[in-house]
Amino acid sequence: METHHQITVSINSAPMKGEMSVLFSGRGKPVGGHYIGPGVHDYYLIHIVLAGEGIYETLGESYACKAGDAFVIFPDILVKYEANKLNPWQYMWVAFSGDIVDASLSAIGITPDRAVIRDCSLQALKKLFRNVRGSLERESLAALGNMEASGWLRLILHELASKGEGGARTETATVQSRSYRQVDQAIRLLTLQYGQPLSIESLAHQLGYHRAHLNKLFKEATGLSPMQYLLKVRMKKAEELLEGDLTIAQIASSVGYNDPLFFTKQFRKWSGRTPTDYRKGLMSQSQG
Fold this sequence. Notes:
It is a single chain. The protein is α+β, with helices and mostly antiparallel strands. A seven-stranded antiparallel sheet has the order 1-2-9-4-7-10-11, with helices on one face. It has helices spanning 101-107, 122-136, 142-161, 175-178, 180-192, 200-207, 211-222, 226-241, 248-254, 260-271, 275-287, and strands at 4-11, 21-30, 35-39, 44-51, 53-58, 61-66, 70-73, 79-83, 90-97, 116-118, 169-171.
């Protein structure tokens, strides 16, 4: 079944860990009614609408978007977006990741509950997005292309956050979705405190919510319960640590498990392999 009349994607072959780094960028012309989601991503994603119309849904809100509007998708937040059936949108997108991204976006007023930006300069953004894709398509010196693409990404963010006459306006969620800000705070707590003993009761107490209510909001926003999300955070961090020289017991302790055997059991459920076998696989890949 056809999903796009036209689509082009450029991929970064040398993304850097930790820094703000572009992963891929593209341009598409979906067919009418084409949708993505509901689902979650594990990276940040900016779409700028070039023409047509569509709907972006996040945190219990639905936003009608048209040419000149942009929407930002945050990791682990449940989203859906759909092209209008009669006048489907065309858009460009850039995906990126990095440890500093969340703080950088927040500093310029772009947050999960303020993720739709109106009245952007299409002329400026089209050029910047083209420059990102051009950087990623370098046939040599991929690391240099990565650095260049990251620079263009920062200029895209600057353009989205610009104020004043002709500047962009960030749309804030209504009262209905303001309670989801607590979900965002819960995500931050789980991401920062994954190495500590945590329970849904302690998390709800910190946020001032009843356990059942927080669990309901969290699942609506992310598709996972808080404890399922915590497991995901811990296992992904364990995968990173298994690339290094820490013992299995040290890794278990680092991600919140006092019992290495229980950690091994959880990791095997998560990845299908024991931590030791996972590490052996990494070593084989590096030697191959």
